[in-house]
Design brief:
single chain, 91 residues
């Protein structure tokens, strides 16, 4: 879902920069950073909008309950605290 995540070129640039920055690390450090970057990108690609998960009849009730709390907290931050109402914490 490229509308809510970074574009492919931006993700590729992020991976490249991560690899360049860890060039001075020992061998195991490079492997760790590469693995962490790969895991983070996998998480970002697998995310789904909260509204879609809540509408999914196959989603676990415990997950739905936690996501409703996230939505309530997000709405409180925007309405009561005046924080920006953007796409943060919506997926």
């Amino acid at each position: 879902m490229l509308t809510e995540s970074r574009s492919r070129p931006a993700r590729a640039l992020q991976v490249l920069l991560s690899l360049l920055l860890c060039g001075g690390l020992p061998g195991c450090g490079v492997a760790y950073v590469a693995q962490a970057t790969q895991g983070q990108l996998r998480l970002m690609r697998a995310r789904r909008p909260i509204d879609k998960v809540l509408a999914d009849p196959g989603a676990a009730p415990s997950l739905k309950a936690r996501l409703l709390i996230v939505q309530d907290a997000r709405d409180f931050a925007s309405v009561d605290l005046g924080l920006p109402d953007n796409r943060s914490y919506r997926s």
